[in-house]
Design goal:
Two copies of one chain form a homodimer.
Chain A: H1 7-25, E1 30-31, H2 33-40, H3 44-54, E2 65-66, H4 67-79, E3 84-89, H5 93-99, E4 109-116, E5 123-125, E6 128-132, H6 136-143, E7 147-150, H7 154-167, E8 171-174, E9 187-190, H8 194-201
Parallel strand pairs in A: 3-4, 3-7, 4-6, 7-8, 8-9
Antiparallel strand pairs in A: 1-2, 5-6
Helix pairs in contact in A: 1-4, 2-3, 6-7
The first copy, chain A, binds a DNA duplex through residues 6-9, 32-34, 43-46, 48-49, 52, 58-65.
DNA sequence: TATATATCGATAAAAATTTATCGATTCGGG
DNA sequence: CCCGAATCGATAAATTTTTATCGATATATA
């Protein structure tokens, strides 16, 4: 069952996918666990264990794993069992950057639109619409949006969060550097852009190794 | 010694800091491990263990921990033993958003400037300068920059990365969805904005619990 | 065809992390 | 002044995750 994948492994899968896509683009057919481990800075045994969990075809001795097949497996695992719609609340610099980011499709996520209070921000970015906040409930309902990305300034984060919850959004990815309080049942994941950078700076980097 | 903090704990510290700052802003003097755990969705025992590692003052039975003191301890731990300078390469949407992001100071990181190939992007954002790529080595050297944030499109990522390495940058935070190859000794940490979102979408969220 | 080698997959050991338990401490209320 | 509730800190158990070991397998090459 797909639920049998540990948290630690699940965190690494996207890394493999990205790496393998690079190899595929280079025209490489096979890749060994040792090569992956060296390049990604983790252990070969760990790589094999992780891949064993999602790979449909076994690795071939003396060759390694077939890149194309692994990519397919990873994409299936990472994006298969869902096709979620998301909205962005806050069309400032970060919000607009995410609106034009093209990496979400890989994970089965469709960013529907962005919202902002400021009339100046309303319009479109990268072909995606930016609506005034009032229209949030309507759009959420119509598109069955379950996930919201919060990219407003710290001061308006809680208010925007409340609006999202009222509109029926059940999971929020919060980029504002504040703690949000939400009603029972709503999931929040905080993401602070400074954190990975800080980890990188640490002498003892807390890498995802 | 400060090196005795486990990776798992180190990953959680920023979360505590943010949460506690919120409480401090609300004027709350004390907070119990149980309250933190409930709000943050983790276990109270874990919270106590984590805090024990960085807290200078012990928690008070019947009250909990002193918020102000914990904030000070966390800030000291997270940002004290370094003061790193960073640059941003790629002044597109994400790059500019990060240039105007004010959360880096909390972690002892100073973003010095951004760089871009396109003359149209050169100028200033949020009071920080945007230089043409040619000036990267000079600025890096002058400011002793050790860390670079890579926010260019996928296609130019490797080239930009190479330039950063040549300029003397030893650690790179990569936001482009590609695998970068770097010489021995250079650290790379990849950050894909879609990943946390994907985790949030998963039925079995891989939260940082 | 036989052999050496690179690689896998499985099992086992070690390490790290989380969770549980429990006595000790402090304060508020009777 | 004593009792009970709330909370901590420490120790111990359980779980998860990583790392090590080793035989099996497939391929290239002599």
């Amino acid at each position: 069952m797909s639920g049998a994948i540990s948290k630690a492994t699940a965190r690494r899968l996207p890394m493999y996918l990205r790496y393998l896509k690079g190899k595929a683009a280079d025209g490489q057919e096979y890749v060994s666990s040792a090569a992956i481990a060296t390049d990604l800075g983790c252990s070969a045994v760990g790589v094999r264990k992780d891949l064993a969990l999602i790979s449909s075809a076994p690795g071939k001795p003396r060759f390694g794993f077939e890149v194309k097949s692994l990519v397919a497996d990873l994409e299936r695992y990472l994006g298969y069992h869902r096709f979620a719609s998301a909205v962005i609340v806050g069309a400032g610099g970060l919000g607009r950057a995410m609106l034009s980011y093209d990496g979400f499709e890989n994970y089965g996520i469709r960013v529907v639109a962005a919202f902002d209070n400021s009339p100046a921000k309303v319009g479109a970015v990268a072909g995606k619409p930016v609506y005034p906040m009032e229209r949030l409930p309507e759009i959420v309902k119509r598109n069955h949006v379950e996930v919201g990305i919060l990219t407003v300034p710290r001061s308006s984060a809680q208010a925007a969060c409340d609006e999202m919850v009222r509109a029926g959004i059940g999971a929020i990815l919060n980029f504002a550097p504040v703690y949000l309080s939400v009603p029972e049942g709503v999931r929040v994941k905080c993401e602070d852009l400074a954190v990975p950078l800080a980890q990188l700076c640490e002498g003892l980097a807390v890498s995802d190794k």
